Structure prediction request, 285 residues.
Amino acid sequence: MPLVTLKSVLADAQQGGYGVGAFNFNGIEDARGILDAATEKRSPVILMTSVSAVAYMGGPRAVVGLIRGLSDHLEIPVVLHLDHAEDPRFIAQCVDSGYTSVMIDASKLSYEENIAVTREVVSYARRLGVSVEAELGRLGGREEQVNVSAREAAMTDPADVPDFVARTGIDALAVAIGTAHGFYKEEPKLDFDRLTRIRSLTDVPLVLHGGTGVPEPDFIRSIQCGMAKINVGTELKYCCSQTVRENVAGKPTEIDIRKLVGDARTNCRDIVLHKIDLFGSGGKL
Ligand SMILES: [Zn+2]
Prediction:
């Protein structure tokens, strides 16, 4: 089927009380592994690219062509989503090229500037029926070493959410409740009270970033507390590089590149199969 919007997939997820995985990919092997898993589980799936992954793969048109070609004969709903973009002009290029969902991350700006930039992206994307995710609060990054009070201050303030959603018209909201990107140095502590308060104040589908390393029961609890989209990036990236590392070491004379990188497809598939079971999206077509 043709690519679908984030809005439609998350509306079903919210109604059904399950989460949908959003998986970062950087090439053919991981993209195919993600689609293999979703097909096997008959699950909706969100494929997403960072801005640098789009450049790596040759630009938005190349990515759209790849994913349309891999998925248009499948019977599962597939969303192609742009992750963490800060430049509205680049987002517009992705919208024009056929992405069905984009994230504007203006969370580094002030609250009012975040609203202004997000509104601009929503008004552009909406003309082509493309969904928009925005971010409120600041997610931790692997480079950041902040103390507890700074961490709290960076979290999403529930009181801001209804105003932000109403004034921007977004389709999904990334909230900061204690997760961070990359690998964790210590186990993350998710603020479920904050998530529950946010959920009680808005109907907008919520997004959990920084999923790699979150304990499995916390994923389940996050979905029960109202998370609809769960991002998984670092775990798949590590899987791909580890696969290549092991194959290169184990097959030092191999000249067929496909025999060095190709196993990343099945290894990524296995991770995504497990995530789909955990998030509960299998069979939800
Ligand atoms: Zn993120």
